[in-house]
């Protein structure tokens, strides 16, 4: 009984975090002037049309991926509304492709130099790779591989949430944003991948 309650609470927290951070890009769209991460960028970068296009493509479609992706883990949705599950899955894949490619480009210009740059570029590659594999697997009706890769994919997607959890704490601990940002470029997603690996093993999914 207690385990069931814990699982339900964890699910509610998971969904609320995904929705909350998924809606976060709206602040960039409704706020006039520079906001959030834009404040930390050099003027030359902020004035680049290509960079700004990649930035907004990344945050908007990344938000859409967060908003649509959590639903793929709802057993009730798969059982009762399979067609909706499939359509949301396709929407998620498209959102990841746009956001992931934009994210890899943005990673080249990451604040703090090579360490966060490699961290965010690696995250983008992992996110794209696992999502594409998940999509190809379901096309081949390999549901075990599909489910496993979707767990890894959304764990990478959820880095948007864990980044915003870790970054304030690390900034307070170290008293310096730049050092915290270098660490969080890896901390926001590597533990997520470890958790995903343990989840995949627990479910007994075969990844090929």
TrEMBL record:
Keyword Kinase attributed: no
Where does the record place a coiled coil? Answer: none
Q: Which InterPro entries match?
A: DUF2306_membrane (IPR018750)
Protein name per UniProt: DUF2306 domain-containing protein
Q: Where are the transmembrane segments?
A: 9-30, 50-70, 91-108, 114-136, 148-167, 179-200
Highest taxon in the source lineage: Bacteria
Question: Where does this protein come from, organism-wise?
Answer: Flagellimonas aequoris
Query: What UniProt keywords are attached to this protein's entry?
Result: Membrane, Transmembrane, Transmembrane helix
């Amino acid at each position: 009984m207690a385990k069931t309650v814990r699982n339900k609470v964890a699910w509610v927290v998971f969904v609320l975090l995904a929705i909350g951070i998924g809606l976060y890009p709206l602040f960039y769209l409704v706020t006039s002037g520079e906001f959030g991460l834009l404040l930390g960028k050099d003027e030359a970068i902020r004035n680049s049309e290509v960079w700004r296009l990649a930035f907004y493509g990344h945050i908007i479609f990344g938000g859409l991926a967060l908003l649509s992706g959590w639903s793929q883990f709802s057993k009730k949705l798969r059982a009762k509304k399979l067609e909706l599950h499939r359509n949301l899955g396709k929407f998620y894949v498209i959102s990841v492709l746009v956001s992931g490619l934009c994210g890899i480009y943005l990673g080249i210009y990451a604040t703090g130099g090579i360490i966060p740059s490699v961290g965010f570029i690696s995250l983008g590659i992992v996110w794209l790779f696992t999502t594409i594999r998940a999509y190809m697997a379901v096309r081949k009706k390999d549901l075990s591989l599909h489910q496993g890769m979707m767990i890894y994919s959304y764990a990478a997607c959820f880095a948007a949430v864990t980044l915003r959890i870790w970054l304030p704490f690390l900034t307070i601990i170290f008293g310096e944003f730049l050092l915290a940002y270098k660490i969080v470029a890896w901390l926001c997603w590597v533990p997520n991948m470890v958790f995903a690996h343990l989840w995949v093993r627990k479910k007994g999914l075969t990844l090929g």
